[in-house]
């Protein structure tokens, strides 16, 4: 380990517990939770193996009135939930880490779709997650009952074996305790509303009662959002200082951040590493208790600086621990240059929103630790001395090359252009997406150290070239191209197009600035349409962003980018036109069509950039298939398409495809069912009778 990183490995006392180092995996959602418990537990266990001193759950509901169905978070409603927790705790303890649980009641931010119980809140209010349904105002009995639920959940958590139990008041309107603290959600006139002291009363009671219940055995952490970035309407520094000052020594640990979640897990296009420091740094001045905070920390020097300058005692991480579960071990072993740095794309947060096991753009093994037995640092050895050729050095080709080389095969990587990275290199040339190039950097850095890898740029291969190379296994990772004919989910047939008006998204990313005004037509609904519009508008071009959807960049709700994108586009004066398809593209104009009525609207523009769908660049693959009878004579056994060449998708999917190729090579994997399922059903179980 580098001498100056030693401080990161100093133990620290947290209440009655001691963590072995300063690496603290803060609570984070993962889309697995109670629904896929083995998947979740193995994922947490692997992180503990990777050296994190503390591993926490995601938020864990304490009662059926706090039901987030269809989301798949943790639950601790009664003893029948304990087995899931015990499984996770065992995995974490086996690796010498502490296990923490983030208990929550979500108040007005619930669905209760499963339980059909009435939502409740400090004051009567519409719920945040259901339409046309309200939360009722809690009376004094409700508050007393809620305190009992928290106490019982804390006792259950101790029984399960947790070391750290959270009282959670953060992430904006998502938590009931925070709803009590905020002026805009607490309009009570009793001793739980009005003055700051009154609004904090319930949090104080729950903290004290949790300490009283389990404080001798477990550390009690308080997670508190010190600023909602809403000025005086929301939590702000003035109130937060009073709150931290008044509760200073009650919890054993302060876990502090900013709200809402989109400001906490800030996407890299809107903020850098350590971006919360200015907001949270006051906390340590007001308490003697340890403080943990996050900031997408991936650089050990930045982490050291946070501790030495007295900003934080513990380096909190959700995303960096997802992108590289072995980040602490790599620092400990002096291998910091091997850290797989989070790119801040927030593909991981979509798992929570869309209720599927989380995936990570950088780490293809995330979520597959149990399901497929994929370990982030271990991979089965090569089954033969066969050689492998990978054609195309985009994210899938780079990952395939790296993982195949990790297995011990000799690999050749041929890339047509003068740099590796493919679409990632291109997309990250757009200023907002600059950090995404870490996908390529991480892999090219490691490949340059491998003696069993030969990699070449400016090496475009055709079928004859591939046959001539004579590698036993060939992976075609030649990517995809954006369509110019506007065909996508909205236009199943191409509209009439005056071709010279149309500019490829790739050309804009390669530095072409089309003649304005430019219409970006986005039928992809993720980040690229908005990013191109932002880039062109920042370069001084007049931009009209058109989409057939009801909103632009709609899928970015799930990656927490949505509101930031909307704000930025509007600040750049990008004109946004929704619910419109393209009737025709003429010379100097576009005839738009309302998606509902077909009503036309003419917009005069100099160019159109369609971001609709992509075609696989699979000519090379098809040529090789045609020449299959020549393979054996040239020593070729298999030719496979991977990544966008196989099917265009996200960068995460391309990386995953490359990794899967390497894991499958010469392995007896059942292609029809390549993963384990969690579909236990206990036949013969006897349930209690209902009253009759
Ligand atoms: P993916 O996302 O699947 O990795 P990309 O489009 O990012 O796909 O990358 C594909 C890469 O393949 C590009 O860098 C491209 O230059 C390269 N490529 C395409 N055709 C050939 C070829 N015939 N020989 C070598 N490289 C190629
Ligand atoms: Fe980071 Fe993106 Fe992976 Fe999330 S999905 S951990 S933001 S690289």
Give a structural overview:
The protein is globular, with a radius of gyration of 27 Å. The model has no long low-confidence stretch (mean pLDDT 97). By secondary structure, it is an alpha/beta fold. The chain is 29% helix and 18% strand. The longest helix is centred in the first third of the chain and has 21 residues, at 140-160. The relative contact order is 0.09. A hairpin with a 2-residue loop joins β24 and β25 (589-594). It has 3 domains: 3-354, Alpha-Beta Barrel (TIM Barrel), CATH 3.20.20; 387-481 and 616-664, Rossmann fold (3-Layer(aba) Sandwich), CATH 3.40.50.720; 484-612, FAD/NAD(P)-binding domain, CATH 3.50.50. The protein has 22 helices and 29 strands. The strands form 7 sheets. The chain has an 8-stranded parallel barrel with strand order 3-4-6-10-11-12-13-14, surrounded by 6 helices. α1 (37-49) packs parallel to α2 and α14 runs parallel beside α22 (651-664). The protein binds adenosine-5'-diphosphate (ADP) and iron/sulfur cluster. The site of adenosine-5'-diphosphate has 25 residues, from α14.
